């Protein structure tokens, strides 16, 4: 008689446990769904915040341009400020650009310090990054206004530091572009996608190579029409050599990366070479460009506006690409993780503030630039040429580094086997 009783009691206990488990599971499921919705809303706010910061960066660019080209008339009444010097000269032109740039740098530096190491959507750092726009607008106004009270010596010192910051920005941009090219090549040329995208990848790489060759030929025709243009001939010829070297190494049996990534990279360095030569001062014997009649020719204005948009887009795309700079690529993304690295995002924008300052003053603190001009002068030309050479060097190292590491590992294994043998 004891056994049936024990069986009944056990069955009752199992039934009670099952019922409570069901209730607990339903509560847990509802709680998880509620959290999932909250995380989704926070993620949307975070993604929208990127565009607001990009718009803020665009506004500071436009402000720097207005102060450079038209600030002397508007700020002439600021002569009573000791920092602005006589008739406000030190708050317009080049010094005005640096003051606005410093204000933009201060704003994004403060955002960097207050959102550094923010990793979760439910944290205070995420709330500050994605909300409180009225307070951040006041912070932006104060950040931009304060540098106009700084002495001239400090602004000149900031201008020297900005060259370093702009160089860091260019390096980050290069790494981001090369990582994107590598991802594109791996995506289309992987073993799984090769059957579907192989022909498309071959067609795309052919288009890029044709565009690169046509670009080199056109640069020879337009910017090196005679032997007197020796510097331009050197720039273009060296670019062509880099193009051939990248293609040969990509097709080498030990590297075997195909033509897609090298084709895209070839077009990129040809573009950098063209951009560098276009930044040269107008010289009749080596450049087809002529001084536009007046400073407001529509082609000059259009090119200037496109250049500003390019600065903003380059800063924005580099800022959201924090994954290219992670040491661990296999980190699992959880549901409550922030969609991008806030600290890195604001760091890139702070370096971008220094970068746009250098473009507006053509990397030169001593000479004023003309209206509606940007990034023109020998300093700008050499910065872009060096940028091109560094880009090619980084890309070539990414091609050969796996082969070099593999050779070192094989050599170490060979030495170990050799010493271990009797």
From TrEMBL:
Keywords (A to Z) from UniProt: Membrane, Transmembrane, Transmembrane helix
Q: How does it sit in the membrane?
A: Multi-pass membrane protein
Main location per the UniProt record: membrane
Q: Does the keyword Cell membrane apply?
A: no
Record Pfam families: Serinc (PF03348)
Where do the TM regions start and end?
51-68, 96-116, 137-158, 164-188, 200-221, 233-251, 258-277, 297-320, 340-361, 381-400
May I have one GO cellular component term?
Answer: membrane
Subcellular location(s) per record = Membrane
> PANTHER family per the record?
SERINC-DOMAIN CONTAINING SERINE AND SPHINGOLIPID BIOSYNTHESIS PROTEIN, SERINE INCORPORATOR
Q: Which family does it belong to?
A: Belongs to the TDE1 family.
What is the protein named?
Serine incorporator
* Species of provenance: Protea cynaroides
């Amino acid at each position: 008689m004891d056994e049936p009783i024990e069986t009944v009691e056990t069955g009752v206990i199992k039934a009670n446990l099952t019922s409570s488990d069901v209730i607990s599971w339903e509560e847990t499921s509802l709680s998880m769904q509620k959290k999932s919705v909250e995380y989704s809303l926070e993620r949307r706010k975070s993604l929208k915040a990127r565009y607001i910061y990009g718009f803020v960066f665009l506004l500071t660019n436009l402000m720097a341009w207005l102060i450079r080209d038209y600030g002397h008339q508007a700020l002439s009444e600021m002569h009573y400020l000791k920092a602005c010097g006589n008739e406000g000269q030190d708050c317009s032109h080049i010094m005005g650009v640096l003051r606005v740039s410093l204000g933009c740098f201060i704003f994004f530096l403060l955002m960097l310090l207050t959102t550094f190491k923010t990793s979760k959507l439910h944290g205070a750092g995420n709330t500050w990054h994605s909300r409180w726009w009225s307070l951040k607008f006041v912070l932006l106004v104060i950040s931009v206004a304060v540098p106009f009270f700084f002495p001239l010596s400090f602004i000149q010192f900031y201008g020297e530091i900005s060259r370093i910051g702009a160089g860091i920005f260019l390096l980050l941009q290069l790494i981001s572009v090369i990582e994107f090219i590598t991802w594109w090549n791996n995506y289309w040329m992987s073993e799984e996608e090769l059957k579907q995208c192989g022909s498309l990848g071959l067609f795309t790489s052919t288009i890029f190579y044709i565009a690169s060759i046509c670009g080199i030929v056109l640069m020879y025709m337009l910017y090196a029409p005679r032997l007197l243009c020796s510097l331009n001939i050197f720039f273009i010829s060296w670019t062509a050599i880099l193009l051939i070297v990248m293609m040969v190494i990509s097709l080498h049996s030990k590297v075997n990366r195909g033509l897609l990534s090298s084709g895209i990279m070839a077009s990129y360095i040809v573009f950098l070479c063209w951009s560098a030569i276009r930044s040269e001062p107008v010289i009749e014997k080596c450049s087809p460009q002529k001084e536009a009649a007046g400073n407001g020719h529509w082609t000059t204005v259009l090119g200037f506006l496109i250049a500003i948009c390019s600065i903003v887009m380059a800063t924005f795309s580099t800022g959201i690409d924090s994954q290219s700079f992670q040491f661990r690529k296999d980190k699992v993304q959880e549901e409550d993780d922030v969609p991008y690295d806030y600290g890195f995002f604001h760091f890139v924008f702070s370096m971008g503030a220094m970068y746009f300052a250098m473009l507006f003053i053509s990397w030169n603190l001593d000479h004023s630039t003309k209206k509606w001009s940007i990034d023109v002068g020998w300093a700008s030309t050499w910065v872009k040429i060096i940028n091109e050479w560094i880009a090619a060097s980084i890309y070539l190292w990414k091609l050969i580094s796996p082969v070099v590491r593999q050779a070192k590992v094989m050599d170490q294994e060979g030495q170990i086997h050799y010493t271990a043998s009797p």
